[in-house]
Automatic annotation (TrEMBL):
Pfam family of the protein (one): YceD
Protein name from the UniProt record: DUF177 domain-containing protein
Annotated organism of origin: Leptospirillum ferrodiazotrophum
């Protein structure tokens, strides 16, 4: 669960933080409005991995320390073949209470007391993904003349076209 009410988050001045160990694919499935937006639907619908870490609070300030390990299928921009990107990212942040919080603002929660880590986690993963995904660093791409994948077979056309 990536949504916590402030009352269910342990106050670390008194007790240990809440341990988190969740399935990433399960969390994506349970929050489609957060993860399966139009521009990221294809990638996130097939993501797999784990979310681990701790959540605690000091008064109304919520401390979040999470690590995400993931496997996500991507398409190479040169040869258009699908490949699996394995990655790991971690971040520590704090969520602050804000009256009349804008639901789109990250790292804030409103007077209802619900802290939603979904949008923050989505951005954490997206910023870890390559902007220009390549199946491998030396990918030769597709031939502009015949469309042959040059990683699989030579077509005979010059590469400098």
């Amino acid at each position: 669960m990536l949504r916590y009410h402030i009352d269910s988050i342990p106050d670390t001045r008194v007790t240990a933080p809440l341990e988190v160990d969740l399935s990433l694919s399960g969390e994506v499935a349970s929050a489609p409005a957060v993860f399966l937006e139009k521009e990221t639907r294809e990638e996130f619908s097939r993501i797999d991995g784990r979310i681990t870490g701790e959540i605690g609070r000091d008064g109304t300030d919520v401390h979040v320390d999470l690590s995400v390990s993931y496997e996500i299928p991507l398409t190479c921009v040169r040869c258009l073949s699908e490949f699996v990107r394995t990655g790991e990212t971690a971040e520590r942040t704090m969520f602050f209470h804000q009256k009349d919080s804008d639901p789109e603002s990250l790292e804030r929660y409103g007077s209802d007391g619900w802290v939603d880590l979904g949008p923050w986690l989505r951005e954490l993963i997206l910023t870890d993904l390559p902007f220009y995904p390549l199946c491998r660093e030396d990918c030769r791409g597709l031939c502009p003349v015949c469309g042959q994948d040059r990683n699989q077979k030579e077509c005979g056309h010059p590469e400098d076209l």
